């Protein structure tokens, strides 16, 4: 068995390769081999094309076979169909290529013939030492070095600034569609990993890698079945001490579990057992793709809450009332309560609030508020020891509120040590405003339910850290 350091270095080569070969690279627009090859031309890696039917592909010499490649290759992306992919993978093993990404489907999920092909693939890591991602995998996307093997639309331009979230998905479509939507308002992606059928590299390998990776501050997983369950949970507990781990485990119902078997060729376990194990080992559970992305974004950007007391500031009283209702409604994830503001805080808010404003929690400054009033009240709430989380209901419709408010809020929040979550709606411009908040280091959502849910993620995270400190 290889040492942990060797495993880390091997996966590091997968995500940060110096040399990459695309088997099945093509000049034909729309073919998978063409899309992947063209995408990889933006990366920093030395790029090789392998195709016996082409001499030159996009200005690169095309090699007839793997054996002809000059020098060492860190990653081979195999884009040919399943039957050919197995033979090519064996050739890559003989060439001592460290990592193989196999795009083709048609393996265990396709019945008995596919299972036979998959069995041959499984022998390659043991026989040659090459590690396999897939088959039936979209591969990887690492914004930092523009290494991208995904051949479908996935918001890559919107995600190009990178960030700290490692997103590991057994389903390629779930991963890329979720990220594409999340990127509309900003999403700090460290890396995307498409596990596919995970005959070799799986969730445990990447949990361990990103758990040790200093550039990763949050790990999000979509899984339908978990390999090496006990080891995975033990590793998750260790990683959760350092950074949040969120998992969306699909197949919760009998029909969903049956669909998992059809999709992956593997059985899903008892959902009740899964939920209990996740709680015990410090994994925060999401129940759909939106929740997974919201949780990851929130936990990546904001500190955990030290308590469950929430203060709300708004210029629209009705939204303040609804927000209070959501906060005080019991929820199995984490119970929240409205903070009781101190007399000093109330006095500070009244200094600049309109005379008809409600300065108790939720703080309603009314539509007469100005940028100065809003930020003054925000600072007062952040200084109150009875407040653990602040929710800002921030609208730009009032005539005295301008876009400058975003900068002013960012300055007020900076170095406060308390999590602040923004809710805003502004018709067709909502995503634009949320993206501006994100650029200034603030997390925002376009609905009250998602905003309050984000507060629950932070309270839950705080309780997980407290519980893990009490465990050996």
Extended strand count: 20
**Separation of the first and last Cα atoms:** 27 Å
The CATH superfamily name of the largest domain is Succinyl-CoA synthetase domains
The share of residues in extended strands comes to 15-25%
Regions with little confidence, pLDDT below 50 for 5+ residues: 260-268
Assembly context of the chains: single chain
The CATH topology of the largest domain, please?
Answer: Rossmann fold
Number of alpha- plus pi-helical segments = 16
What does this structure look like?
Helices cover 41% and strands 17% of the residues. The chain is built from 16 helices and 20 strands. A seven-stranded mixed beta sheet has the order 3-4-2-1-5-6-7, with helices on both faces. Strand 10, helix 5 (172-182) and strand 11 (189-194) form a beta-alpha-beta unit. The longest helix has 22 residues, at 448-469. It is elongated and about 80 Å long.
Helices and strands in order, then pairings?
Blueprint: H1 4-15, E1 19-23, H2 32-40, E2 46-50, E3 56-57, E4 60-63, E5 75-78, H3 82-94, E6 99-102, H4 112-128, E7 131-133, E8 139-142, E9 147-148, E10 165-169, H5 172-182, E11 189-194, H6 203-212, E12 218-223, H7 229-240, E13 245-249, H8 254-264, H9 271-280, E14 284-286, H10 289-301, E15 309-314, H11 317-328, E16 337-338, H12 343-352, E17 363-364, H13 371-383, E18 389-393, H14 404-413, E19 420-423, H15 430-439, E20 443-445, H16 448-469
Parallel strand pairs: 1-2, 1-5, 2-4, 5-6, 6-7, 10-11, 10-12, 12-13, 13-14, 15-16, 15-17, 15-18, 18-19, 19-20
Antiparallel strand pairs: 3-4, 8-9, 8-11
